[in-house]
Amino acid sequence: MRGPCTYAGGRHCSGVSVAGNSLGRLTSMSMLKNEHSQGARSDGSGGRCSVSLHNVRVTFGRHIAVDGVTGLFHPGSLTAIAGPNGAGKSTLLRSIAGIVPVSGGKVDLGGAERSTIGYLPQVADIDRSFPMTVSDAVLMGAWRRLGPVRGACETLHSEMRSALASVGMQGRMDTTIGSLSSGQLQRVLFARLLMQNASLLLLDEPFNAVDAGTTADLLQLINVWHQEGRTVVAVLHDVEQIRRYFPQTLLLARQPIAWGKTQDVLSDANIRHARVLVNGQPSLDSAELL
């Protein structure tokens, strides 16, 4: 039988849920190579938080990846970052997460604890050769919030099992991450976010290279987070998907084109303008993938 687990600083597992309300509200649904993060303005674990961007600029040598982004991700908002390939979407998200430094301007995260931010990388950024099981990968979410664990207690294992059940992966606890499909791996990474119980969730192309069933299940989980008042920001390409599920959108073409209600931001004119700025010419169909 597992005993109490001890964290850095001498803290013990108290039996308090680390997975948040998401697990209770969901029924069972049918390693990052370099991971860093930074805090977010929050009123407590699992509470609301906001992120303010002040004339943010990101450069790589002489290349300007992002320039002049100013605005606010409101507490509890659900926002898509959209734009053509090469528009700087993932770069901006990684700057908010503290992974990529800004070259100018400021990302105001309020100086809160690092554990209040949950970052989901692209599947391609996961080192699948690392010898880690599904259960260990999910437990990492709790470790990021509570600190290093010296022996995993039954409470954390129970939370881990619930998180995996919520994404339909309860039968794969002992499977290595290297043997998972892209969709299965994405489910595991969402379970890890459940364990972290973050106030701010930054998702980099969460539906890329995953099947339709997985996409539907993960959209359901994102909606639960939104209903709980968590702040969710996701980099996405599918215009119709954004229009259907994301109330707010930042349209980016290295510089901001528009930021606000999705129905206003994703106009045909704005999409064409973004494509001209990034690609030099508009696509024939403004409704296709950005």
From TrEMBL:
Signal peptide: none annotated. GO terms for biological process: zinc ion transport. This is Manganese transport system ATP-binding protein. Residues 51-279 form the ABC transporter domain. Coiled coil: none annotated. Pfam families: ABC_tran. The keyword Magnesium does not apply. Keywords: ATP-binding, Ion transport, Nucleotide-binding, Transport, Zinc, Zinc transport. SMART domains: AAA. GO terms for molecular function: ATP binding; ATP hydrolysis activity. The keyword Cell inner membrane does not apply. Belongs to the ABC transporter superfamily.
